[in-house]
Amino acid sequence: MKAIQIIDYGSTDVLEMCEISAPEVSYGEIKVRVKAVSVNPLDWKMRAGMFSHSMPLSFPAILGRDGSGVVKEVGEDAGKWRTGDEVSFMMPRGLGCYAEEIVIPFTHAVTKPDHIEVTEAAAYPLVAVTSWIAFLEEYTSGLKGKHILIHAGAGGVGSVAIQIARHLGARVSTTCSAANSDYVRSLGAEQVVAYDQEDFTLALSDVDVVYDTMGGDVHRKSYEVLKAGGHMTCINAAPIEDLSSQFGVSMTIAQVNDIAGALPKVAEMVADKSLVPQVGTVLPFDQVVKAHQMLETGHAQGKIVLIL
After folding, report:
1. What PROSITE patterns would the database entry show (predicted)?
2. What is the DSSP string of 108-167?
3. How confident is the model at residue 237 (pLDDT cuts 50, 70, 90)?
4. How far apart are CA 241 and CA 245, in angstroms?
5. Domains in the chain, ordered, with CATH?
6. Beta partners for 176?
7. pLDDT, tens digit (0-9, with 9 covering 90-100), for 203-228
8. What is the pLDDT of residues 158-211, one digit of tens each?
9. How far apart are CA 283 and CA 307, in angstroms?
């Protein structure tokens, strides 16, 4: 089967299309014929070696955390799945899905609703599961009635996070470029700060929760807008400097571990149309280099999806 591998950390030059053996199904697993895969910021950061210490890769490595496809084979004791079922899926950590076929635990797949396309089905699992977990009460003490700032609201993570936060009862502010202001308002953001026109630290204050998807300067400046006792919940965006004690707030990095618990929750939102997957760009599988280059600019709207 065809797969895209990397044999070392580096630029997009390390991405190579290869022929490899198809994976074998074991107990409690299903094999999926992949129809589409999403490309996430984590992919290019892993490729570039930004997480080589915390999440080292074993080479040759296949990147990619989520996608959609059709169940091709069902292992013993693998739940409800049947050959031919259309699914969205998430990969266990350490395995990738830039490939024509993948094998996953049966709990890492959910049914694709009829009303969405395979590209949309591929676009939401990782970003939605990440945001769902980041917004859990253990990280935020609950969002109902609170004011949350979600950074990069027009991006792959932010565009889904806005919808989930609204679903959980929060009042949402977000940052984005001026060109994307109407787009993020359409997703449910009440206050929009155009970062290319104003400084969010001057526009916002007394925020209950900040959802930091970016790290770096944005992370450091975000402490300034939190109210005393507020909380910053972060995903794996580097670098992160914990200044919480200095500002009298708390900060946690959400651990995206309970895929089997969170994935059905967000899939239910997609099924009842309270969460609409956001696909910004669709490219052929062999244009993975272009997809990574687009993501590295930091200005992609919605998700980038590769179609097989």
Report:
1. QOR_ZETA_CRYSTAL
2. GEEEPPTTS-HHHHHHSHHHHHHHHHHTSHHHHS--TT-EEEESSTTBHHHHHHHHHHHH
3. low
4. 11
5. 2-124+277-307 (3.90.180.10), 129-253 (3.40.50.720)
6. 194
7. 999 999 999 988 889 999 999 999 99
8. 999 999 999 999 999 999 999 999 999 999 999 999 999 999 999 999 999 999
9. 6
Question: Measured between alpha carbons, how far apart are the two ends of the chain, in Å?
Answer: 12
Q: What is the DSSP letter of 102?
A: E
Q: How far apart (Å, rounded) are the C-alpha atoms in residues 279 and 262?
A: 21
Rounded distance, CA 197 to CA 204, Å? 14
Structural element, H or E, at residue 41: helix 41-48
CA 87-23-99 angle, 5° bins: 60
Would you call 169 helix, strand, or coil by DSSP?
A: coil
Q: CA-CA distances (angstroms) from residue 195 to 35, 205, 225?
A: 36, 16, 15
φ, ψ dihedrals at 4, nearest 5°: -105, 120
